[in-house]
Input
Amino acid sequence: MAKVKDSVIEEIKPIIAERNDEFVDMEYVREKGQNYLRIYVDRENGIDMDEIAGLSELLSTKLDQLQPDPFPDPYILEVSSPGIERPLKNASDWQRALNDYVHVNLYQKVEGEKEYEGTLKSYDDNEIKLEIKVKTRKRVLSLPRKLIANIRFAIEF
Output
């Protein structure tokens, strides 16, 4: 499935960029006996359903024209926004998340927890600094990057 993903990304990224959209992520997965090609796109000020529908038509046409066909089996194409709580996948996501509220899942516990939410205060290749709230006090927690299973934007309540 990785081979399919790699060959498709090369073909769709220019189409997405031409529309001033941002390629966020793509997954090619099998669920309940059906293959799905999910393409996540966004725009600086958000993307609406009409824009997604137009892009979906363009991508569908392009994917149908690929020779040789990279898809071994029939699939369902889904084009969508990653949503407000989108994952941080690339350098621009990390930069955008600086001083924003994020949710972090860890591979193993740090200070007794595997999940944290807080404001991303800084990051580098080795660690992130997350300002968290413990009861009524705020403090900065350092988390090793190698322990982060995933990180995404979050809504603060």
